[in-house]
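Format notes (please read before filing issues)

Several people have asked whether sequences and structure tokens are stored in separate files. They are not. Every record keeps both together, in the order shown below: the sequence lines, then the token lines. Line labels are part of the format and must not be stripped during preprocessing.
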Amino acid sequence: MKLKICILLLFISCANIQAQNFHYIIKDTKHFFVTGKDVFTAPLHYDETDWIRFSSVVGLTAAGFLLDNSAQSLALHNKSSFNNTLFGIDRYSAQTTIAAIGGIYLTGWLVNDQNVRKLGVRLIETVGYSSVITLFIKGVAGRSRPLTGRSHFDFRPLSFTFDQSSFPSEHTTFAFAFSTVMANFYNNIYWKIGWYAIAALIAGARIYHNAHWISDVILGGAIGHFVGQFVCDHDLQSVSQGNNDVSVNFSFPIK
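Then the structure lines:
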């Protein structure tokens, strides 16, 4: 009899946990779409600082065009077994990023760890929305990849082919989007440096493998970083504006 009671109590407890977890899925889905709306309408509310950042990204990307051929030449003339191993980090980086995000969110959901679950939500939002922006620019720009042998000024808008999808680098966007959220999760300088170093290494790998120009990775990294920072700051901004329904208890970093 006691065993049956224990099993019944365990079943009720598990059912309550799962019901609560499904409540979080609904909440997280709502948060995802609210954040997305704010990401894409953010330029309508830019202040002076935001426009300075935007102009800086445009300027750095333009400067990258001046270095495209030099960076490509440097990469092609410095092939070695060590560099091949080091820059092999980009081979499965996109798949690893997606798997890591899914694993983080599911872990937080299954074990009911709110910090881990919220980290997963922010990663999904950041990587998802930054990828949409990057893919849109890729399709519109239609820039030739360096491996085609064409000029770095060769653009064929609306081509939608692999060879014409160089600008910007999606691998770099993924890397900086993921690393920015992870860097904001824990307030430690070495933790932050480590994550940005990984992102920078992936960006360098795209140039090393002649898959992208340096201007591609500059813009891709900027998109990932600034969308990531926007998502990390989003809830604090929402709280200050009184939108507690979406943002309450969604704060980082861990000290």
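For reference, the curators noted about this record: Residues 28 and 163 are 37 Å apart (CA to CA). The two ends are 48 Å apart (CA to CA).
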